[in-house]
Amino acid sequence: MAFMLLTVRRAVVAIAAGASVVSLSAPAAAEHGPITDAAAVRAQLDLMTSADRIPGALAEVRDRRGRSVTLTSGTAELGTARPMVDGDGRFRIASVTKPFTAAAVLRLVARHRVRLDAPVETYLPGVVRGTGEGSAIDGRAITVRQLLQHASGLPDYVRFVNPAERNRPVEAAELVRIALSHKPDFDPGEGWKYSNTGYVLAGMIVERVTHQDIGTAVTELVIRPAHLRDTYWPRAGERRIRGPHARNYTVDNANPAGPLVDVTEFEPSWAGAGGAMVSTPSDLNRFWQKLFGGRLLPRWVLAEMRTAVRAPALGRGVKYGLGLIRLPLGCGGHIWAHGGDLAGGGVATVSGQDDSGRAATVYITALTSGAAVEHMRGAMDVALCS
C-alpha cells in the first residue's frame, strides 16, 4: 500500500538519558486516536533493558494510514550515554530475511519463471545430492514450495557449523554441502522442521533463474519495488553495518555473568539467503504494508504465500506459510510475521502485520537469555493488542 505523506517534523520526548523515548510521526496523530498504548509497550521494553540485561530495545508501530510511533529503551552503545537509535537505525534482521527471499522467489513465480511444485532439480540440476549419512537426500524429490515452507526434511546446516569458522566469507554451495552430508530430518513433505538450508537453496534458485547474485536479485525484485531506502544485502566480507546503528552484544560463554561481548561486526555470508540482510524498523513495517497491500505480488501468488501448515515447534497455534509465520495474538486474531535471532550476531527481532493493516517491529541488541526473547515477543503482542 503506497502512502503519500506530507513531510512533518518528528516530535521526540526524552524521558531520561538512556531511558525510554517516544518518537511520533504524523500526519496529526491525535486526529485518529492512538496507534498503540505507548506506556504499556514502553514497560515491556524497560523490562528487557533492566531485568534481561539488554543494552537497547526498540518497538515501532505503523498504522495503515502511514502514521507511526517509535519507542525505545536503553542505550545504543554500552559505556556511553548514547541513546538507543530510532526507527531509522539499521540492524541485522536475521531470519526476517526469509520473507524477502520468499517474495523474490514468488515474484519469479508470478512471472512464470519458477513453479512452486517443480522439483529443485529443475533449477539446480545435480546440486542436491546427499552424501554419507545424507545419501537419501535427492533434489528430484524436493519441491520449491517445500524449501520455502520448511517441509523439505533438509537438515539445517547451522547445527553443524563450528562458531570459530564463521569469521571467513563462505559460498552458499558450501553451506548446502555441509547439510547434505547429514541424515535428513524426514522424507520431503512428511513433516515440518525449520531449516536455513532450504532458504540457501531458494536463494541459489533465484540466482540461477535471474543470472544475478542473491543480493542484487532481491534488491531488484523486492527492495526497490517496495521503496525501502535503508535496506540492503551486505556483500560477503562486509562485516560492518552501514549508516546509523546500535552496537550488538552477546553473553560471554566463558563468563556468563560477566560483561557482554560486542559482536557488531559479523560475517553475513554464513547467514546467507536465510538471514543476511540489514534493514530498519521503519523499512520493515513499510515492507509488510507493501507486501500485503498487493504492491509486490498479485493476489493469487500472495494467497500461495499465506497458505500455511502447522508448525508446532514454533508454539501452540502457530502456522508457517511461504516465508511467513501465522502467529496468534493474545487478544485474538493473528499476525503474519517472522522472527529472527542471529547466532553469534547478538540481535533478535520479530516483525509483521495484523489484519487491520498495522505493522510492528520489535528488536533487541543482545541475546542474553530465552526470557529476553519471550519478553521481546510479549512487547510485539502488547504493541498490536493495546
Question: Could you please describe the fold and organization of this structure?
Answer:
It is a single chain. With 386 residues, this protein is an alpha+beta fold. The chain contains nine helices and 15 strands. It has helices at residues 38-50, 97-110, 144-148, 172-180, 196-210, 214-223, 281-292, 299-305, 370-385, and strands spanning 11-14, 21-25, 56-62, 68-74, 91-92, 249-250, 261-262, 278-279, 309-310, 319-320, 325-328, 334-341, 348-354, 359-364, 366-367. It has a ten-stranded antiparallel beta sheet with strand order 1-2-4-3-14-13-12-11-10-9, sandwiched between helices. The protein has a three-stranded mixed beta sheet with strand order 7-6-15. Helix 2 packs across helix 5 (196-210), helix 2 packs across helix 6 (214-223) and helix 4 (172-180) packs across helix 5 (196-210). It is globular and about 55 Å long. The two termini are 23 Å apart. The model is unreliable at 1-22 and 24-31 (pLDDT under 50).
Structure in a nutshell:
With 386 residues, the chain is α+β, with helices and mostly antiparallel strands.
Short key terms for the protein model shown above:
single chain, 386 residues, alpha+beta, three-stranded mixed β-sheet, 9 helices, 15 strands, globular, disordered N terminus
Overall strand count: 15
How do the helices and strands follow one another from N- to C-terminus?
EEHEEEHHHHHEEEHHEEEEEEEH
Largest sheet: 10 strands, antiparallel
- Contiguous helical run count: 9
Approximate strand percentage? 15-25%
* Overall pLDDT confidence: 91
Q: Helical amount among residues, as a percent range? A: 25-40%
- Secondary-structure-based class equals alpha+beta
First CA to last CA: what distance?
23 Å
Uncertain segments of ≥5 residues (pLDDT<50)? 1-22, 24-31
**Shape, per Cα inertia axes:** globular
For the CA atoms, what is the radius of gyration? 20 Å
Strand order in space, largest sheet? 1-2-4-3-14-13-12-11-10-9
